[in-house]
Design goal:
Elements: E1 18-23, E2 26-33, E3 36-41, E4 55-64, E5 67-78, E6 85-87, E7 104-105, H1 112-116, E8 127-130, E9 133-136
Antiparallel strand pairs: 1-2, 2-3, 3-7, 4-5, 5-6, 8-9
Amino acid sequence: MSERIVIAKAADIAPGKSLKVVAKGRDLVVFNVSGEYFALFDRCPHEGAALSAGQVIGLAESDMPGEYRLCRAGEFVRCPWHGWEFEIRTGQSYCGPHRYQTKKFEVQVESGAELVKGPYRAETVSVDVEGAYLVVSM
């Protein structure tokens, strides 16, 4: 089973935006695609550029030369060095789909109450106020 690591508050990444984070010494970039969160290794597998410095874009499709349409807005990241494009949901390259893919990591949104409870519990002692004195019952 993989280790669960808190990397950011969900509210820190607006829809269509990304955030560079470090988890276990590895640079990751986390994207918010219409309220869904995806994390990729922050390194282009082509020549190592930081994908966090890349532009979040859509996909251009064309049925014939000279005509195109933009779709899937905000679902791709373009490498800042050579323009290679990667699908944010899968890490798959559209420039070399059988050869290049950046590593993706699963991201879950969990409530803070579930995360702050650790495996250890401090012993508690009841405290009462009697007049102007604090009284501990042991």
